[in-house]
Amino acid sequence: MPGVHPEFSEHVRALERKKAEKIKVAEAWRTYQLQIVENFYEGDVQSAEDDFIVRSALLKGWRRTFT
User: What's the rounded Cα separation, in Å, for the pair 34 and 16?
Assistant: First the structure.
């Protein structure tokens, strides 16, 4: 920055570096949290599918008993 005190310029650059680092950390944390949520969701979907298969098999067996 021409016409600006060198110490001020260095302070601004230091703040910009800190800001960039904080953004990088925040983005990494967000990605990590999203992955956790996606893993929980996939686990819940798999559990629901497994439950459906088991209950369907039980109902098919139950219907055969009464037909």
Answer: 27
pLDDT tens-digit profile of 35-66? Answer: 999 999 999 999 999 999 999 888 888 766 65
Is residue 5 within 8 Å of residue 16, measured between CB atoms? Answer: no
Residue 42 · residue 50 · CB < 8 Å: no
- pTM for the model: 0.65
Q: Residues of the chain with pLDDT > 90: what percent?
A: 73
Rounded CA-CA distance 9/1 in Å is: 7
| Calpha distance 57→62 (Å, rounded) | 9
Our CA angle for 14, 20, 21, nearest 5°, is 90
